[in-house]
What we know:
This protein has a five-stranded mixed sheet. The protein is α/β, with parallel strands linked by helices. It has twelve helices and twelve strands. The longest helix is centred in the C-terminal third of the chain and has 26 residues.
Amino acid sequence: MTPAQPTLETSPAAPAPLRPRGSNHVGMRAFNERVVLQAIRLNGALPKAEVARLTGLTAQTIGLITTRLEEDGLLLRQERVRGRIGQPSVPLALNPDGAFSLGLKIGRRSADWLLVDFTGAVRERRSMDYAFPDLEQLLPAIQSNIATLTAPLGPLAERVVGIGVAAPFQLGGWHRMLGLSESASQQWNTIDLRAEVQRMTDVPVIFAKDTAAACVAELVGGRGRDIKSFLYLFVDTFVGGGLVINSHLHTGKHGNAGAVASLPMGLGGAVHTAEQLVTRASLWELEQRYQALRLDPSAAYDERALSDPYRVETLAWIAKAANALAHSIVSGTAFLDVDAVVIDGSFSRTVLDRVIAQTTAALAHYNWEGLWPTSIVAGTTGPDARALGGALLPLHANFAPDQDLFLKVG
């Protein structure tokens, strides 16, 4: 987008293009703008005096910055707050229409598109279900849904700052479990999804591992506001995870930290290979249990899972999955010593509560000598976590002061 100098007279029907905001010492003014935006994002609407106190910037500097951000359409003045000692204060809040981003989650059972505004609220969504994604069908659907989501914005479409794509690093992984051919698996394992989506749009496209993106959503808008270091477990068709250390997403050398699906469930040997967590704590197994009884496998992802005739199989799966998750939590705690473990998933909130309750109970069956026991808490985002985390990536890249927060992806 071409930099411009918008004024207060700019018509809402023709919003001014957003100016790039640097985040290094060369562009200190732009960096300070990011600091101010982050303070308001984390704390809600604030008067200038409170922004100055939180950021450590002078009142004069805050005045200049907030004026510029208002002119850019990123901040809105709220109603004056009266009834306190001194002059009435005027809180400043993020303008929901200040910027937009798109999040795209591509999973093994479904794809989701979200349009998110500057406050992180979901404006529009689209979904697509399948047995396994077919490239010839999915790529046109991606392009079509990008256009469908942005079209209602009209002139505000100029304020879309990017698209975040969240998908497994190897979507064709564990293809034998899914009943896929080797060629179908390799087709997905060799495609560059970021590049494919970038060909469809003029805005920047960012890619992240799907469970890392889900972890971002939890870090920015969920448990990460209170918990500084946590292991994140997300139960989907295949279980996955992420890792937050000192309020930063730790992605590892290859962007694959928190790859709990591959965690061994026992000792390997010359005759056999140890099973992995993916075989015991994934909704894929629950799907198989349903299909064996000629039941709808999609019930694993909604409220039907705990109603008849699904209930018996669901409870049996939860018992097995909870023990496997407990094993992974003890193993993770031995290496990481985190504050807590956050569990979320694509299933219903009722199933999540049962999984957490039984996983917590299962932890008592493990030897914790030499370790500090950890607590398990429920994630706050649910099935939207991966697409929402993807949508937050462009917003963070453009407006947050700390680019190391979760952009160091392999």
